Amino acid sequence: MSVSEVDTQDIYQTLTIGIALVSGDVSHVEQSLDKVINFMDEQADAELVDVEEY
Questions:
Q1: Where do the H-state alpha helices sit in the chain?
Q2: What values do phi and psi take at 14, rounded to 5?
Q3: Phi, psi (5° rounding) for residue 2?
Q4: φ/ψ (deg, to 5) at 16
C-alpha cells in the first residue's frame, strides 16, 4: 500500500490523498481499502468529504 498527498496542496485546510494497493486478490484490495477509509472517517481529525474508487 502506498499513500500520498496528490492534489490541493495550495488550498488551505484541504487535503487530497491518493492510495494505491496492488494484490492478486480483488477481495483483499477491497477489504484493505475499506479499512483505510473507515479509519480515516473515524480517527482522522478531519471531515472525509469524498471517496473515488477506480
A1: 26-43
A2: -130, 135
A3: -130, 135
A4: -120, 120
Which residue is listed with cell 469524498? 50
Residue with cell 473515524: 42
16 grid coordinates: 487530497
Per residue in 9-46, pLDDT tens? 788 888 888 889 999 999 999 999 999 888 888 887 87
Choose among 29, 10, 28, 11: nearest CA to 19. 29
**Amino acid present at 37:** I
- Residue matched to cell numbers 496542496: 9
C-alpha cell at 5: 498527498
The whole-model pTM stands at 0.69
